[in-house]
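User: quick one, fold this
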Amino acid sequence: MDGRARFVTGTDFFDAKGAISIADIAALTSARVVADGRDCGDAAIVGVASVDEAHPGELTFYDNRRYAGALALCRATACFLREADLRFLPHNVIGLVTERPQQAMALAMAELYPEAMAPASLFGGAGVSPSALVHPEARLEPGVVVDPGASIGPFAEIGSDTVIGSHAVIGPHVKIGRGCRIGPHVSVTHAFIGNRVIIHAGARLGQDGFGFTPVSKGYLKTPQLARVIVQDDVEIGANTTIDRGALRDTVVGQGSKIDNLVQIGHNVTVGRGCVIAAQAGIAGSCEIGDFVQIGGQAAIAGHIVIGEGAGVAAKAGVMRDIPAFSRYGGAPARPLRRFLRGEALLTRLSRRISDKNDKKN
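Assistant:
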């Protein structure tokens, strides 16, 4: 082994479902085929790879001028790219012209490798494993898969075509919809989960929120009495934690995507279609509007409102509300252009000071 993983037919982890013609890929992605007069009717795709590693029979994409050198040497059968980049494409490679090469590549990969779209049972089993612990008062619809070592508490309800991974813990009265994937070692308590939700390994949903009231001799714990509500088509990354609410539910809106190692505090509302990158932390009682983007390691203080469509840069420290459709960065966070101008000014000042010191020496 050379240490490099390549996604081709017969790979160790994902097999392509079969060859796909160039015409079918073009139809799927609405791409225009450019073959310099060659007949590509018999050309077929059996795998995918990066532009610098692709071989005949494989599909790739080009979306960044940084890789122009790799494209010039590309050996793939076909490549998604923009019209303006056709001049860089080798003659032997079929062009698939689209304004969104990466998006087209994702569609083609999903068609070739449908099993890679969501975690499956690690044991390839069907039904409930003999070593799983399912309470007799839990209700599982037909088609639920429960891997070895998983535990499902009383009165839990799980919809059809859902997979519960090995050693996952599903608490009492939890409701999980249909077509979900609950990864290994996930714990879900005090929560209602919608349909087609993916929760990756090690995530924790529904545990106590960080609720403490200062008193004369320390801190008084506040009971956390509400739930976590996860709406349809949400994806939650590995080792992410979402605390249940104290007096109102913690909610993650439909279609939102949450990366690994994210902390979402109690009473938080995350809107629809949001994207939250790794290691971001959202303190209690925040309201995140629809289609907000939050960068990695951003920290958002409690009771903050972030308006619809806003963007928060990586490592930002958000201490006050952010208006809709604005972009903020820095710590404390401020409008992104102001933050960038300040950083540029600091850089110029530091260079001047450094130049003066050099002259003195």
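User: anything notable?
Assistant: Residues 1-10 have pLDDT under 50 and may be disordered.
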